[in-house]
Amino acid sequence: MGGVVAEERVDVAALYRDLNAAREAKGLTWRELARDMGLSPSTLSRLSNLKSPDVHAFMAMTQWLGVPAENFSIRPERSTDDGQTGEQPALVAQLAPLLRARKDLDAEDVDYLQEIIGAAVRRFSSSRKPAAE
Length: 133
What we know:
This protein is mostly helical. The protein has six helices and two strands; from the N terminus they run βααααβαα. It has a two-stranded antiparallel sheet. Helix 1 packs parallel to helix 5 (91-101) and helix 5 runs antiparallel to helix 6 (107-128). The longest helix has 22 residues, at 107-128.
């Protein structure tokens, strides 16, 4: 029985950007970050050159960031009900690693900020939908 294989790619640039932001926020070098994730420094060097990581490295990176792997998935472009394409990552998903990396916020603070940002995004999105004729 055959299955459908989704045509998805890893958004390597976004993954690198989020790792770099979290690394800087924690005051880590790239070598220290690689060690924390159980990866070789050369894996992160390849990532900096926009080379896709293997599955093991990708999972280690997303787990270290504390975000779902889907946050870095690029699907073929398709329109959504609100007219946007499927490639635009959610704002909360983009901000989550940055919020978690902050030393002045605990997990409860991060959850609260994510709720507030999510509510604002939903409010803005609903106010921009065209009125039904």
